[in-house]
UniProtKB/TrEMBL annotation:
Family: Belongs to the GMC oxidoreductase family.
Organism listed in the record: Rotaria sordida
Membrane-traversing stretches: 233-251
Hydrolase as UniProt keyword: no
Domain Glucose-methanol-choline oxidoreductase C-terminal as annotated: residue spans: 69-207
Cell membrane is among the record's keywords: no
Keywords associated with the record: Membrane, Transmembrane, Transmembrane helix
GO MF term (any one): oxidoreductase activity, acting on CH-OH group of donors
Protein's name according to its UniProt entry: Glucose-methanol-choline oxidoreductase C-terminal domain-containing protein
InterPro entries from the UniProt entry: FAD/NAD-bd_sf, GMC_OxRdtase, GMC_OxRtase_C
Length: 254
């Protein structure tokens, strides 16, 4: 335990006995969602997420996430052998209009603003004063001869089997793989667009919704089988009734 850390014996005791306190919480307790000037006017979603966390109670780390990147990656089959790993091309910052890098730089500027406020400054935190212009920002993100890259993925991979009705859609709106009977995809890959935040909770929702779709479709198949059985049963009764009527008419005539 570093000296002065808030993760001290009292914090351990609190967690051990009550399951409360700093150790019962996530290391990234603060999330800030920002809508930058790069987001279209008619789009109310945030496009930057800033996460501020404390790994040990004495320091802070912060990340700026790009929430709706325009760059698109690709997953390509390496061969016809299903056991071969596919080729995954991330293509980060590849959008021709540089929307992604500009938005992310705006996010980092906002982080700088937060760390430049008096309460943060008075607590001993400082902004990245060396990142004063766009070239320095880009070098900071991509890295160059004198610095390493400071950008990474948020591990929120989505959309490789997107749901939809267009020619690029892998699954239909009921998550059935188009062109294959009896196969569904129910995970993060079906998102047509990435959500504006962490993906785990949306994946739980997709799982719940997909399970319900399977149940509903099975029930409706069962119902339609039952109703066709019911129809043929009714039809048999009509035929038997008709035969009985016909035979009794014949008997009466004789
Ligand atoms: C390092 C990391 C940190 C993350 N942190 C967060 C976070 O803090 N908050 C958040 O909201 N999201 C976070 N995410 C994202 C989140 O975990 C994913 O969006 C989510 O788990 C995706 O769910 P999924 O069901 O699509 O895929 P997965 O959770 O990856 O599930 C796929 C499953 O398929 C199994 N599998 C793979 N191949 C085969 C095979 N051939 N046969 C059988 N099984 C197979 C895998 O073992 C795995 O269990 C993080 C992701 C990573 C990688």
């Amino acid at each position: 335990m570093p000296p002065g850390s808030i993760i001290n014996q009292a914090a351990w005791d609190l967690f051990n006995y009550n399951r409360t306190g700093i150790l019962a919480s996530s290391s990234s307790r603060t999330n800030v969602f920002i809508r930058t000037k790069f987001q279209p006017v008619n789009d109310s979603r945030p496009d930057i997420q800033v996460i501020i966390g404390t790994p040990n109670g004495t320091s802070l780390w912060t990340l700026a996430y790009l929430l709706q990147p325009n760059s698109r990656g690709r997953v390509i089959l390496a061969s016809r052998d299903p056991t071969d790993a596919p080729i995954v091309q991330m293509n980060y910052f590849s959008d021709p209009a540089s929307h992604d890098v500009n938005t992310l730089m705006e996010g980092i500027r906002r982080v700088n603003q937060i760390f430049s406020t008096a309460p943060m400054h008075n607590s001993g935190f400082h902004s990245f004063s060396n990142l004063s212009d766009d070239i320095e920002f880009k070098n900071y993100l991509y890295g160059n001869k004198s610095s390493t890259a400071n950008s990474n993925s948020g591990d929120h991979f989505t959309g490789t089997c997107k749901m939809g009705i267009d020619s690029m859609a892998v699954v239909d709106p009921r998550l059935r793989v188009r062109g294959i009977v009896g196969l569904r995809v129910i995970d993060a890959s079906i998102m047509p667009f990435i959500t504006s935040g962490n993906t785990q909770a949306p994946v739980y929702m997709i799982g719940e919704k997909g399970a319900q779709m399977i149940l509903d479709d099975n029930n409706s198949t069962g119902t339609s089988a039952a109703s066709s059985l019911h129809r043929s049963y009714n039809f048999s009764i009509v035929i038997i009734f008709y035969l009985v009527f016909y035979i009794s008419t014949l008997i009466k005539q004789h």
